[in-house]
Design a protein that fits this description.
1 helix
């Protein structure tokens, strides 16, 4: 390399001492790290050091280790776990999209539970299946502030209670639901003798407002005895 003095900055150089890539203006200490296998903010951690499975073996371990404003970047594959978002701003992304990356639930509750305790949450790029619950067995996001994008929510069920609410997706709040498919989810409420069960959305249920762009709901079904 060459070191020297100049009255004006030569091409390809930076006045910022901590800039780690003078050739790329988008890489600098003020940048936001995103899921692109690069150290965008020059802090020494590629993709915030929250890559699954490179840095953490499970998605939940990466979520638990994250700080506010960071990204959890998930490689293609199937991850057998249930996810609980914390109370801080966070993005969890399947970097190769919903066709390549799956979260397969344990069948003991919602596969993805996103509470209303944080702003600007994002969950994107996954197939979500295998949940079992009366509320949002696939994705349960009551009063969510953020974005659900590029999700295929399928083969989740509600079979253990008298009421089923949004078996695939239960969500509302200041959120955007974009490019989401909800299909092949199953509601079979338990009905006592002489009583009736209730189903509010075998596929998706929005009890109050939400912004929606390209939501497809099909082939969800209800069974009662």
């Amino acid at each position: 390399s060459y070191a020297g003095a100049a009255c004006t900055a030569p091409a390809g150089t930076s006045f910022i001492d901590l800039d780690c890539d003078d050739a790329d203006a988008s890489v600098n200490p003020d940048a936001v790290d995103v899921c692109n296998d690069a150290d965008d903010d020059c802090d020494g951690d590629v993709d915030d050091g929250l890559r699954v499975p490179t840095d953490y073996s499970t998605i939940q371990d990466a979520i638990d280790a994250s700080s506010s404003g960071e990204h959890v970047c998930v490689a293609a594959g199937t991850y057998p776990e249930d996810l609980l978002f914390g109370s801080h701003t966070l993005s969890v992304e399947g970097v190769d999209g919903s066709g390549a990356t799956s979260v397969k639930g344990t069948g003991t509750g919602p596969v993805v539970y996103i509470s209303g305790g944080a702003a600007d949450l994002r969950f994107a790029g996954f197939t979500v299946s295998g949940g079992e619950d009366g509320y949002g067995a696939g994705v349960y996001a009551p009063y969510m502030d953020g974005e659900l994008e590029d999700l295929d929510i399928t083969e989740n069920s509600c079979t253990s209670g008298s009421g089923c609410y949004g078996v695939g997706l239960y969500a509302y709040g200041p959120l955007l639901v974009k490019d989401v498919t909800v299909s092949s989810n199953y509601a079979a409420p338990v009905v006592a003798s002489g009583a009736g069960g209730s189903v509010y959305g075998a596929g998706a249920y929005f009890p109050t407002s939400a912004s929606i762009e390209n939501l497809k709901v099909s082939d969800n079904y209800v069974s009662s005895t």
